[in-house]
Structures are given as structure tokens and as C-alpha cells.
Specification:
Largest sheet: 2 strands, parallel
Strand order of the largest sheet: 1-4
Radius of gyration: 30 Å
Number of helices: 9
Number of strands: 4
Helix content: 55-70%
Distance between the termini: 73 Å
Shape: elongated
Number of domains: 2
């Protein structure tokens, strides 16, 4: 019976090209519609997992090491995103193994808030309550400038930070002479170790 139906369809297609085109269009629409169903999506996810398991694993380059922010890291360090002094401490630890270069796959675009160290801040508070005088250094030690610590650690190591260029004109920000100087120095440091310069219209 299936063979007879197949022969009938074949004869109709051979004798009438419009019939074949219509049949192909209907089948195409059915297949396209199926691609947007949850059933197909689940099937594709499962097939994707199978392909990854079957695919031979590429050997890791012996000179390349990945440090991931995984569940174990979050359990030990705390909720992500982390204060930047955490990365500064990490760079100081990594420095001991003398890496040729360190690259971050995280963008640090905004200024981070300062972080109060509870133990030191408590000592400062006790001095204030006792009417004692506190120094700027004591207060500065109690409240960490994560950005300054991170940038200092970056300057001492061969570090590459993640960046991206937008295909649009950025709003020009008025900078003080000191801020402009730091900005120019940052661009020079970037271009010294980057494979491409910073586009003039993206600075």
C-alpha cells in the first residue's frame, strides 16, 4: 500500500510540475513550522549535547591556563561580581608563578565603590568614640579604594583587559587636565601591548 501511494505521488509530480512545486512548498512550510516548536528545540538541545560528547576533545595548550569564576569560587569568595581588590590580590598571587601575560575576559567599565574593612573600621570607630584623633592614613586604610589597588596590581604585571569598540559616536566627556593625562597614559599602555591601536574616533 505505501508503495502504491509513493508511485501515485511520483507519477503526479512527473506529469504535473505545479503539483510537485505545491507539494514541496507544503512540506517546506511544515518543516519550517516544526523548527519553531518546543519539541524540536528540546531535540536540538539533546542532539547538541550528544555531538559534544562524540566530538574528540582538543588538547589544551600547555602554556595556557584558564581560571574560571565557578560555583566553588563563589562559595569561597562570595557573591559575584567581586570587589576589584579581590582581583588585585589574585594578581599578586599569580605573579609568583611568573606568567608571561595575564588576560581578563571581564570588562571593568564603571568606577567601583570603595570597600570598608570591618575589622579596621571598628578600630577607627572605637578611637572616634573615645575622642581620639584619627589620621587620614587610618581612614584610608579602613576604606579600600578597590580601583586604585586593582590598577596598581595591573601596572606591576603584564595584564590585558577586555575591551569593546562601539560603532557609534560616544558622548564627549569634559575631562580635567589631570584626567586627560591619565587617559592618554592608559591609551599608550594599551597600544603598547595590544595587537591593534585604539581607533581615533573611539577614544
Amino acid at each position: 500500500m505505501p508503495e502504491k501511494k509513493y508511485d501515485t505521488i511520483k507519477k503526479n509530480i512527473e506529469s504535473n510540475p505545479i503539483y510537485g512545486a505545491a507539494l514541496g512548498l507544503i512540506l517546506g512550510l511544515l518543516i519550517i513550522g516544526f523548527l519553531f516548536t518546543d519539541v524540536y528545540r528540546l531535540f536540538e538541545y539533546k542532539l547538541f549535547d550528544v555531538r559534544f560528547k562524540i566530538k574528540p576533545q582538543l588538547p589544551q595548550w600547555e602554556y595556557l591556563t584558564f581560571l574560571d569564576v565557578d560555583d566553588n569560587s563563589i562559595n569561597n569568595v562570595g557573591q559575584f561580581p567581586w570587589p576589584r581588590y579581590i582581583y588585585a590580590n589574585g594578581l599578586e598571587v599569580i605573579k609568583d608563578i611568573v606568567p608571561k601575560q595575564i588576560a581578563f575576559d571581564i570588562q571593568f567599565m564603571d568606577k567601583s565603590p570603595r570597600y570598608a574593612q570591618p575589622e579596621i573600621l571598628k578600630i577607627v570607630e572605637e578611637k572616634v568614640k573615645a575622642g581620639k584623633r584619627i589620621t587620614y592614613d587610618e581612614l584610608n586604610t579602613a576604606i579600600l579604594d578597590s580601583d586604585a589597588l586593582f590598577s596598581g596590581a595591573i601596572a606591576k604585571n603584564n595584564v590585558v583587559l577586555a575591551y569593546s569598540f562601539l560603532n557609534r559616536t560616544l558622548t564627549q566627556t569634559k575631562l580635567t587636565p589631570e584626567e586627560q593625562k591619565k587617559r592618554n597614559e592608559a591609551i599608550q599602555r594599551f597600544e603598547k601591548i595590544a595587537s591593534i591601536p585604539v581607533p581615533k574616533d573611539k577614544q
